[in-house]
Design goal:
two-stranded antiparallel sheet, Glutaredoxin, 151 residues, alpha+beta, single chain, 9 strands
């Protein structure tokens, strides 16, 4: 179940594509955009990453930081990030522990096959760690701009 507005964002400690550790607590005083996506190098996730890449500097000018989170590991994130020349961090959640805490990991079905994966969801967390905005069932085209306009 997706987290509710005005609730405290769950703490996390995750490594990015370069092995650097990021903790939510480290970003107090800034807004944090957490966009959860299913998998590196897939068509929808590529479009979403490219759109956030185009607008991430403008998001930073509004005092926020952008993180993409998926169950892929650091190596996959590094390859994906370098291929797309991303200018923001991708956080590795290989055990889906953070995705589960945020209520965005669960069972999906495709072509009659059931599997566990991330539901494409974005959270805006305010400067004191409270969830300010939730975007569920995200459509990738135009989503980054929608997030930017909500900051």
């Amino acid at each position: 179940m997706v987290l509710k507005l005005k609730s405290k964002a769950p703490a996390f400690t995750l490594r990015d594509q370069y092995g650097k550790i990021h903790r939510l607590s480290r970003y107090k005083g800034r807004k944090v955009v957490l966009y959860f996506y299913p998998k590196d190098n897939t068509p929808g996730c590529t479009v979403e990453a490219q759109e956030f890449n185009k607008i991430s500097k403008k998001i930073e000018k509004k005092g926020a930081v952008v993180f993409g989170i998926s169950p892929d590991n650091e190596v996959s994130h590094k390859q994906f990030s370098e291929k797309l020349e991303l200018n923001f961090h991708l956080l590795a959640d290989p055990d889906a522990l953070v995705s589960t805490k945020y209520g965005v990991y669960g069972e999906k079905s495709m072509y009659g096959r059931k599997f566990k994966s991330v539901f494409r969801t974005t959270y805006i967390i305010n400067d004191i760690g409270i969830i300010e905005k939730v975007f569920e069932n995200v459509k990738v085209k135009g989503h980054a701009k929608e997030v930017f306009n909500s900051l």
